[in-house]
Amino acid sequence: MPNTYTQLYIQIVFAVKGRQNLIQENNRVELQKFITGIVQNREQKLLSIFAMPDHVHILVGLKPNMSLSDLVRDIKAGSSKFINDSKWINGKFNWQEGYGAFSYSKSQIDTVVNYITNQREHHKTKTFKEEYTDFLHKFEIEYDERFLFEWIED
To answer: CB of 128 within 8 A of CB of 119?
Structure first.
């Protein structure tokens, strides 16, 4: 798109259906590489990714040639098919419906990348539910508890 200039940095967060711990450590890097390929094949820039056992954080530089919802749809559909085809779990793997998306300025990128890459340490002191609702509050996003992810109490 000539004469179109953007600088959009979005952190995407989504969870395993039922918040089950289905992403095993021995599969984490392979899943991250697969998702990276999806993002790159959609001509978007992946800046950081970390898959926890029950959820994923991705930081992308979003170009205007694709909507955020289409990118997330492609990531979730492609990666769930990959997990199912790889037979990493007994039964069918699915991501929960919905996702969180949070925008950042260029000056915040290093902080967000550090936050994403240190997910293991972060979750030693905070549950995913606490983390997610903290994001909603920090970004002043109105929400209805009934329509958040299905939570398994930690």
So the answer is: no
> Which tens digits make up the pLDDT trace of 10-56?
999 999 998 789 999 999 999 999 999 999 999 999 999 999 999 99
Do 46 and 58 form a contact (C-beta atoms < 8 A)? yes
pTM of the entire predicted model: 0.91
**Secondary structure letter of residue 123 according to DSSP:** T
Residue with tokens 């998702």: 35
Q: Which tokens hold the place of 19? A: 């918040």
Residue 40, both tokens: 């790159």
As given in the structure block, the two tokens for residue 77 are: 């559909």
Give rounded-to-5 percent helix, strand, coil for the chain.
45, 20, 35
